[in-house]
Design goal:
With about 280 residues, this protein is of the alpha/beta class. Helices cover about 45% and strands about 20% of the residues. Bound molecules: ligand C2E and calcium ion (3 copies).
Length: about 280
């Protein structure tokens, strides 16, 4: 029995070793992805609920992995955060987004684009300044950039969200509270966090056409957000019935496969000139 126990222990050891080998491998690959510029941005159009006119987009990161193909951020953001690489990656995202905003402007298009920040980044007190310097380098106006922050971690006691969001607001940067409704959130935080917008998570919007209680919950959230002067975006809208239900309870803007999947910059510009999707 003793022998057996020892073997099991050895087996376990080998497993840990393999896991850390994989981590090590991911770390090396991510580093290379940064230096070799293997990242790409796609843009998902955002439309006005009433007119269905395209008014902006959300920048979504992709990793063109040399052997594993095009990867969604869900498969590597956590690792990037763990290895302390997220700031550098997101700085690239913001810079690239500013480039797209200025390219749009050169075509006479006034685009407003949102980017996803990682809650890790809020540990950095210079974050607002840093974003400001990227905007200046590209001569992009702060009002054209929206910073999406997940509602999930926004109450983390060790991260100065409140202070950073106040800085953003003073700099004229717009903030959108992402993943709203995904997890229980203390609604009273909405009154002391300086945000401009909430994004209703797909887990909330997906049932609005088929479940009266789901629609009632969304309606109450829209009312609350509006009472606080916030803009409401519904994400993950896939069906016309969902669009209709969400519009009926007052959602301001929408995003989802019904209108468009995330697309390359050029297609975003094309969508903008066609203006109306669906
Ligand atoms: P998110 O910010 O909640 O983004 C929405 C996700 O839903 C995106 O997945 C988008 O492609 C997908 N989506 C959009 N419309 C629909 C729809 O109608 N139906 C369905 N089923 N899905 C839809 P994606 O691009 O894989 O991104 C996943 C998450 O990765 C994002 O969730 C965001 O949290 C994170 N992320 C994306 N880009 C960045 C980035 O540049 N930096 C950081 N730190 N995180 C990012
Ligand atoms: Ca988002
Ligand atoms: Ca979201
Ligand atoms: Ca999400």
């Amino acid at each position: 029995a003793k022998e057996n126990g020892k073997n099991q222990y050895r087996f376990f050891d080998a497993e840990i070793e393999q896991a850390s080998d994989e981590m090590q491998q991911t770390r090396i690959e991510l580093k290379k992805a940064i230096t070799e510029q293997e990242f790409r941005l796609l843009f998902q159009p955002k439309v006005d609920a009433m007119t269905r006119l395209v008014y902006g987009a959300e920048a979504l990161l992709r990793w063109q992995h040399p052997s594993r193909g095009l990867l969604s951020p869900t498969s590597f953001i956590e690792a990037a955060e763990r290895f302390g690489m997220i700031e550098e990656i997101n700085a690239w995202v913001i810079s690239q987004t500013c480039h797209t905003i200025s390219q749009a402007r050169a075509r006479g298009i006034d685009l407003n684009i949102s980017v996803n920040l990682s809650s890790q980044q809020f540990r950095n007190k210079q974050l607002g300044m840093h974003i400001q310097s990227i905007l200046e380098a590209h001569q992009v106006d702060a009002r054209n950039l929206i910073l999406e922050v997940s509602a999930t971690n926004v109450t983390h006691p060790q991260i100065p969200f409140k202070e950073t969001l106040r800085d953003f607001s003073q700099q004229g940067l717009k903030i959108s509270l992402d993943d709203f409704g995904l997890h229980p959130v203390n609604l009273t935080h909405l009154q002391d966090l300086e945000v401009n917008e909430v994004k209703l998570d797909r887990s909330l919007t997906r049932h609005v056409a088929t479940s009266a209680p789901a629609l009632a919950i969304v309606e109450a959230m829209v009312k609350l957000a509006h009472a606080l002067g916030l803009n409401v975006v519904a994400e993950g809208v896939e069906e016309e019935d969902q669009r209709r239900a969400l519009t009926s309870v007052g959602c301001d803007q929408m995003q989802g496969y019904l209108f468009s999947r995330p697309v390359e910059q050029q297609f975003l510009f094309d969508a903008f000139s066609q203006l109306q999707l669906k």
